[in-house]
Design brief:
alpha+beta, Cytochrome-c3 Hydrogenase, chain B, 38% helix
Length: 186
């Protein structure tokens, strides 16, 4: 996978026509990303230095060594570079995990939960920070579960990136955020 990623990265970055379309297109300024609460690669491509795996580590992330890439310009090109660099870091994380983490259960049964109590947690997904809210039910069941997805945070910044660009750039700008439509269809 690393070889294929490197080959694809080199191919994309050697295309002057593609680079011309992406650079200075669909800019999300740092202040807007910060003010509107953008998350994940979209925020990091605009210079926002946040990642839940590092800032609020969960699972084994505090045992793994990784860097959080950051871009500065906030355009489509930076969002692409951000994804490429994060893909390399993900592969390095997988390698570390396979080589260093001890075997163990993939899940643990939780029993004795009081009914109708709530809990909250978070994960850093490929799109950014997800927040998970859960309410227990009777007899150790889940009564309610809701995820506030990263797309929920990033949809509001998209309209800020469109003015000043040509109409054919809209699909490029839109897809550079990798927003999930279904995450908001609730």
């Amino acid at each position: 996978m690393e070889a294929e990623l490197k080959e694809l990265t080199n191919l994309i970055l050697s295309s002057n026509g593609l680079l011309d379309r992406m650079q200075t297109t669909g800019i999300l300024p740092y202040e807007d990303a910060l003010t509107l609460g953008a998350v994940g690669p979209a925020a990091r491509a605009s210079g926002v230095d946040r990642d839940l795996r590092r800032d609020l580590p969960y699972a084994a992330y505090e045992l793994l060594d990784f860097k959080v890439p950051i871009q500065q310009e906030g355009d489509v090109y930076c969002r692409l570079l951000q994804r490429m660099e994060e893909s390399r870091e993900s592969l390095a994380l997988l390698r570390q995990a396979v080589l260093s983490l001890s075997p163990g259960d993939l899940f643990v049964e939780v029993t004795g939960l009081p009914a109708y109590q709530t809990g909250i947690g978070w994960t850093e997904s490929a799109r950014g920070a997800n927040v998970h809210w859960l309410m227990s039910g009777e007899e150790d069941t889940i009564y309610r579960y809701m995820v506030r997805s990263a797309s929920h945070c990033n949809w509001p910044v998209l309209p800020l990136c469109v003015p000043g660009n040509i109409v054919p750039d809209f699909p490029l700008i839109n897809k550079s955020f990798e927003l999930c439509y279904a995450c908001l269809d609730r």
